[in-house]
């Protein structure tokens, strides 16, 4: 399956979906993109895979997904999720340091630090956020002068609202959440720590104490892709970071990322990112 990598240009720097619903088969497979994403669950249930962790999805949940974070939603067929989604480029968000203790991207940075992407809202807080979302929908539907600017201003209000909630909730949730409620989470952690090594379906199934067939089925249900594609994506994303942050030769980066050969690295990287490793590095240096 071909990897999907959205970019800000594909959705403009701001896009909004109000109370949308998808069948499980219409959800994107595991993917990432260059913009941030705020998802609010109006109703329905499911599972959300975000950066190696599985989360339950329920009414009143908010998922904030920073750019370049792999994720995949799995709604329950018998209780489809209805959600509103804000896609926005970080460049749209006010960053002038009026108050050195706050920025509108505070919540994004906090989530990146803790690697915990979910907030659960009380009924009162749900009403507040739903009103913000309704206001965005009204602005974009009526298309008055400055409607997109108004929608972006409301997004700032939402980021402030979530930042205040995060101070109350994320630190405590981070300490108390039972990360092992899904046995697959331990597998994701193992993969992350051992990307350079030889990882196979049979090895992962053995570590999970299940049969390869059962492991393969559950893994694909959770991530939307097979084990081999997932490993190639993870290794490609690691290589992307190394190309950006180091001056290592491409062949060394291929080795550090766990690819069995440089030609395999080149083929896989171009398939997922759309350019060669050298081309990607050159493009980033020119920005």
UniProtKB/TrEMBL annotation:
**Pfam families given in the database record:** AraC_binding (PF02311), HTH_18 (PF12833)
Task: Check the record and name the InterPro entries matching this protein.
Answer: AraC-bd, Homeodomain-like_sf, HTH-like, HTH_AraC, RmlC-like_jellyroll, Tscrpt_reg_AraC-type_HTH
- Give the matching PROSITE patterns: HTH_ARAC_FAMILY_2 (PS01124)
Q: Which residues span the membrane? A: none
- Domain named HTH araC/xylS-type is located at 185-283
The name on file for this protein is: Transcriptional regulator, AraC family
Task: Name any one GO molecular function.
Answer: DNA-binding transcription factor activity
Q: Which UniProt keywords apply?
A: DNA-binding, Transcription, Transcription regulation
């Amino acid at each position: 399956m071909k990897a999907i990598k959205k970019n800000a240009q594909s959705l403009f720097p701001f896009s909004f979906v109000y109370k949308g619903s998808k069948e499980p088969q219409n959800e994107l497979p595991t993917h990432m993109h260059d913009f941030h994403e705020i998802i609010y669950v109006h109703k329905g249930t499911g599972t959300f895979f975000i950066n190696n962790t599985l989360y339950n999805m329920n009414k009143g949940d908010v998922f904030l997904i920073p750019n370049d974070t792999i994720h995949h939603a799995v709604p329950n067929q018998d209780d489809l999720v209805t959600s509103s989604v804000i896609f926005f480029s970080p460049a749209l968000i006010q960053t002038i340091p009026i108050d050195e203790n706050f920025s509108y991207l505070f919540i994004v940075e906090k989530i990146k630090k803790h690697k915990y992407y979910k907030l659960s809202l009380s009924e009162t807080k749900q009403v507040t956020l739903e009103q913000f979302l309704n206001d965005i929908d009204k602005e974009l539907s009526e298309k008055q002068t400055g409607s997109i600017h108004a929608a972006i201003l409301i997004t700032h209000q939402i980021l402030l609202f979530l930042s205040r909630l995060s101070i109350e909730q994320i630190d405590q949730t981070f300490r108390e959440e039972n990360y092992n409620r899904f046995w697959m989470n331990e597998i994701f952690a193992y993969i992350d720590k051992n990307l350079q090594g030889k990882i196979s379906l049979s090895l992962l199934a053995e570590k999970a104490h299940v049969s390869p067939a059962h492991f393969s089925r559950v893994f694909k249900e959770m991530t939307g892709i097979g084990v081999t594609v997932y490993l190639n994506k993870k290794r490609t994303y690691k290589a992307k970071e190394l190309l950006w942050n180091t001056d290592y030769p491409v062949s060394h980066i291929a080795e550090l990322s766990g690819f069995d050969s440089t030609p395999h690295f080149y083929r896989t990287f171009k398939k997922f990112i759309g350019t060669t490793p050298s081309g990607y590095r050159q493009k980033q240096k020119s920005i």
